[in-house]
Request: fold
Amino acid sequence: QVQLVESGGGLVQPGEGLRLSCAASGFAISGYAMNWYRQSPGKERELVAAITSTSNSPNYADVVKGRFTISRDNAKNTVDLQMNSLKPEDTAVYYCNAVSRYISGRHYWGQGTQVTVSS
Reply:
């Protein structure tokens, strides 16, 4: 059974950090680009960070560049998102996404984890 399970969300104050983790099962992430998306109420889901299957050149949305870091561990079948200097506008449900490098159209989503940044 293919699953992506996010964890690590929660309530933090502005300026604090959180580390999100995404654990994959039922497939090997080594053959997938891994992405973190987020969605706030009333807004479209947006790509926050992306990392290729070979971990070369991660990409970030401009609004998180310099604050967020995506990393992957193919051996552990996990991908993390380290979020620093969080702002209230980072409040959203964060989703893990896997896109196959080899099979067109094959992608998986996690169920999401809530991140709330508030004083």
Observations:
- The two ends are 40 Å apart (CA to CA).
- The chain has no helices and eleven strands.
- Residues 1 and 90 are 31 Å apart (CA to CA).
